[in-house]
Amino acid sequence: IAGITQAPTSQILAAGRRMTLRCTQDMRHNAMYWYRQDLGLGLRLIHYSNTAGTTGKGEVPDGYSVSRANTDDFPLTLASAVPSQTSVYFCASSVDRGGGYTFGSGTRLTVV
Amino acid sequence: QKEVEQNSGPLSVPEGAIASLNCTYSDRGSQSFFWYRQYSGKSPELIMFIYSNGDKEDGRFTAQLNKASQYVSLLIRDSQPSDSATYLCAVSNGNQFYFGTGTSLTVIP
Fold first, then answer.
1. Does A98 sit within 8 Å of B93, measured CB to CB?
2. Does A103 touch chain B (CB under 8 A)?
3. How high is the pLDDT of residue B96?
4. Nearest to B32 among A40, A98, A102 (CB)
5. What digits encode the pLDDT tens for the residues A64-112?
6. Which residues of A touch B96 (CB under 8 A)?
7. What secondary structure, in 3-state letters, does chain B show?
8. pLDDT (tens digit per residue) in B62-105
9. Interface residue of A33, A96, A103 to substitute, partner B, most B CBs within 10 Å
10. Could you tell me if B13 and B109 are in contact, meaning their C-beta atoms sit under 8 angstroms apart?
11. Which of B45-73 are b and which e, b meaning 16 or more Cβ less than 10 Å from the residue's Cβ?
12. A/B interface, count of CB pairs below 8 Å
């Protein structure tokens, strides 16, 4: 089934631990994105990638890193998790930057 | 000023009524406009997009765009309880993509 797969679905993580959220798409979309969604704040862009091999910083990049080694995969890494990173994380993709997004099902992360 | 503004609601309408959701944006260079529906605990789902001034209809949904007023709206006719969700407006200038914080809609049976 074409779309975006995120893993894990949910995770409880101890503060200070390293964590990688996985995102894979099979639609051959060029652009991919990571958002976090917090109550009252809406969707905020963390990092994006316009095409394989390139990445850029979004609105709230601190504490997060990404890589885009190929078209399909766009993992998000929290180097040393903090409680303020407790959120729901959505990966999304679009044919090109500026186009309509397809979202993954999300990862609910709790940092304690 | 936020790039995209939406009334957070909640908006309540009776079943069968027309629900009207509104959105304003600040970037006059915006080219593409999208409406996403997000059920509680789920991911956003694209339901409508519009590029040109005027109306675009898809089933019970109509998107309306007025670039001069920097205003985009979504009308839902014959509202159903299954339409109860948060509706996110999104705007793109071809390079940047901005989301509103969403309007919560409840359709009362």
1. yes
2. yes
3. 80
4. A98
5. 999 999 999 999 999 999 999 999 999 999 988 777 899 999 999 999 9
6. 98
7. CCCEEECCCCEEEECCCCEEEEEEECCCCCCEEEEEEECCCCCCEEEEEECCCEEEEECCEEEEEECCCCEEEEEECCCCHHHCEEEEEEEECCCCEEECCCEEEEEEC
8. 999 999 999 999 999 999 999 999 999 999 988 788 999 999 99
9. A103
10. no
11. ebbbbbeeeeeeeeeebbbbbeeeebebb
12. 47
- Distance, in angstroms, between A96 CA and closest chain B CA? 9
Report pLDDT for B57.
96
Chain B residues within 8 A of A46 when measuring between CB atoms? none
* Residue labelled with tokens 């798409």: A25
Return the exposure string of A4-26: e unless at least 16 CB atoms fall within 10 Å of the residue's CB, then b. bebeeeebebeeeeebebebbbe
Block residue for tokens 């339901």: B47
Whether residue B19 contacts residue B11, with contact meaning beta carbons closer than 8 Å, is answered with yes
